[in-house]
Amino acid sequence: xxxxxxxxxxxxxxxxxxxxxxxxxxxxxxxxxxxxxxxxxxxxxxxxxxxxxxxxxxxxxxxxxxxxxxxxxxxxxxxxxxxxxxxxxxxxxxxxxxxxxxxxxxxxxxxxxxxxxxxxxxxxxxxxxxxxxxxxxxxxxxxxxxxxxxxxxxxxxxxxxxxxxxxxxxxxxxxxxxxxxxxxxxxxxxxxxxxxxxxxxxxxxxxxxxxxxxxxxxxxxxxxxxxxxxxxxxxxxxxxxxxxxxxxxxxxxxxxxxxxxxxxxxxxxxxxxxxxxxxxxxxxxxxxxxxxxxxxxxxxxxxxxxx
Length: 307
Fold this sequence. Notes:
The chain is α/β, with parallel strands linked by helices. The protein has twelve helices and six strands.
């Protein structure tokens, strides 16, 4: 921050008083990230989860880390095992920097030429090839004790809208989803991914409405957990993105995400409003305490695995 003392006070208040689960790292220096994490954990007296978008390695975010080619370049360069070797190398560096969770691999297919957000972040357009590389990356990353995150469920490839700006709506049916979008996510789940990221993408053919997967029980609970059998932690994409903020305030977005099956609410637009919304929803009976307990149990299991 521009004012380090004010930034430190803000972080300490969030970790100690507000009880946030952790942080997503963007930018900075390799050594400073671990030191800051250690300081916050000592102050809060508990384990914090630190995540980062490392699709192209630690150097994508932290000075001093390695920058790898894009996923599409990795796919073009060799067999699926290469994706696994990259996953292991990225995780090794992430662990040294104090990062517990890698927000990768991208499981979206590069099927829409006008897609403004996926492109070379994807392993390609072939469901089988993408599936093999997603599974390999997950296995490689998690062999280093760092959690992988398969994203953006149930598939951000077939869109021409950037969910950072507005809500993409995919109108394909269930048959197309089963043949194309879902296989890489199935592969990641079968490989044991510890996290799945719920995308801000609507699939009205599945849910019956235009709620994004991150806020839709039909997609986040019924499809991901009940049908695909995912038992790990579900994390939303950033709740500061336009697909959410143009339609919901931070309190309502947090409540809807929990009702949809999310366990981690990533980067709420306003932390205090998000917390207040959840507390109010529990007090009013809209969210059952057992639902909160289930998420806490999943996060506890994740923390134990990380140790």
